[in-house]
Every structure is written in structure tokens, then in C-alpha cells.
Amino acid sequence: MKSPRRSKLQIAVRVALVLQLLILVVIAAEIVRNDWPYIKSTEEVGRVTSPDGKVDALLVSEHYYMNSDVGTWVYLVPKGQALPTSGIVPIMGGENIRVTNTEWISPQEFLMTYEKNGFIYRRDMAIKKD
Questions:
Q1: Do residues 110 and 51 lie in contact, with contact meaning Cβ atoms separated by under 8 Å?
Q2: SS3 of 90-102
Q3: 59-83 pLDDT, tens digit each
Q4: How many beta carbons lie within 10 A of that of residue 39, not counting itself?
């Protein structure tokens, strides 16, 4: 015959396992809901309008869940519009960079100057506008 103490211990272990499982389910739901461990928050930190006034180059900072990395990206949007929540790809940028300058060289060419690991980089891109 089993001792009453042992069956209470078994019940306590089973309850603890069920609680751990519930916690894991809640964490999994949060992961799916927030697209974790990827982007935690997105913030527009700059906007430069093209010389012809048709588009804005948005400088966007993205903070991540899993680490202290920050992504800085440039997106093109029609002048005055906000960054769409989906369906847009950055034209340039990177993680853990410090952007020092963004400018339009011409209506079809954009330049970004940034620092990474103590080095200064300049990246320009030809832009085809529809």
C-alpha cells in the first residue's frame, strides 16, 4: 500500500509539471504574437525628401528582443506617408551601425554615411522611381 505522503508528493510534482506546461504555452503564444525574437519595436528617426519632392527616404531604427542589437534601415515611401507595417523592403542599412548622414545627391541617387566598428562607410544607391 502506498503511503499518503508519497501520493501527495506525486500530486505536487504533477501540478508543477502542468503549471510549467501552461507557462510554456503562454510564452509560445507571446512569441508568435510579437514575431519574437526579431523586431521588438520600430522607430522613425529621420526623413529626407528627394529633390523632386516625390519620395521620402525614411531612416528607421529597429530594436530587437534577443540581444541589444539595433538595426538601422532606409526605406523609400511616397512623400509624407508613414512606413507600411508590411510588404516593404529597405533599400540599405544594417545592424549595429551609427548613421552619420543621409542625403539625396540627385532625384535618382541617395547617399548614406555610417560608422561601424570604428570605420566610416559611404553607400550610395541609384533609385528608380515609378
A1: no
A2: CCEEEECCEEEEE
A3: 998 877 665 667 888 999 999 999 8
A4: 13
Residue position matching grid coordinates 519595436 = 41
Cell of 60: 528607421
CA dist 111 and 130 (Å) reads 19
Long-range contacts of 78-83 (CB under 8 A, 24+ apart): 78/54, 79/49, 79/50, 79/53, 79/54, 79/55, 80/56, 81/56, 82/44, 83/42, 83/44, 83/58
Residues paired with residue 85 on neighbouring β-strands, in sequence order: none
H helix or E strand, kind and range, residue 52: none
Instruction: Say whether pTM exceeds 0.70.
Output: no
Q: Which residues of 55-73 are buried (b: 16+ CB within 10 A; e: fewer)?
A: bbbbbbbbebeeeeeebbb
